[in-house]
Design brief:
It is a single chain. With 183 residues, the chain is an alpha/beta fold. It has a single domain, classed as Rossmann fold (3-Layer(aba) Sandwich). It is built from 7 helices and 8 strands. A 6-stranded mixed beta sheet has the order 5-4-3-6-7-8. Helix 3 packs across helix 4. The longest helix is centred in the N-terminal third of the chain and has 15 residues.
């Protein structure tokens, strides 16, 4: 479901005010690309009010029921917790490597099981690589990925990568909403 234009505008203003800075010198993104536009999604949702606003926008934008919400740890954690709290669903985090002891788990939080419907989230996506790796990890558990979203999609190639992986991609904002160059 598309977000109301006033909601998109409000989210874009939130990111510009609390999570954006234009840098004079280009810097390398985690994805390997270069940019002068630094977007810190974690800082943008660092207050309860901002986290509630973005989490509610996620719930509004996703037109599918889900049992749990999560994604790659750090980028997804705050948003997964906020959406879980507002929706009554479970939350999970996907590790970069399996835990070295105990269950040796890749996924922490809600114990996902075959047939669970999950929503995948992230704060900022440049290529979709880390989010798609998280999708692979949780699909190994037999879950159904109903959709994926991010506060900000920075690239026109992300949607195609998710379509290729068979995942519905519903970003809240794109580079165009912030008036920045795509990656």
């Amino acid at each position: 479901m598309a977000l109301d234009p006033s909601v998109r505008s409000s989210l874009a203003q939130l990111v510009r005010d609390a999570g954006y800075e234009r840098r004079e010198e280009p810097f390398r993104l985690t994805s390997g690309g270069w940019s002068r536009d630094y977007v810190d999604g974690k800082h943008a949702v660092a207050t309860g009010a901002a986290l509630r606003q973005v989490s509610q926008a996620v719930i509004t934008a996703i037109d599918a029921p889900f049992d749990a919400v999560g994604g790659p740890t750090m980028g997804a954690d705050a948003l997964a917790h906020g959406v879980a709290l507002l929706s009554g669903s479970g939350w999970f985090s996907v590790r970069k490597e399996p835990k070295g002891h105990g269950r040796g788990a890749w996924v922490e939080g809600t114990r996902l099981k075959t047939g669970d419907r999950v929503l995948i989230v992230e704060d900022v996506v440049s290529t979709g690589g880390s989010l798609l790796r998280a999708v692979e990890r949780i699909r190994e558990l037999g879950v159904e990925v109903v959709a994926a979203t991010a506060l900000l999609d920075r690239s026109p190639t992300v949607a195609a990568r998710f379509a290729e992986a068979g995942v519905v991609w519903v970003p809240l904002l794109t580079w165009a909403d912030l008036g920045i160059e795509p990656i």
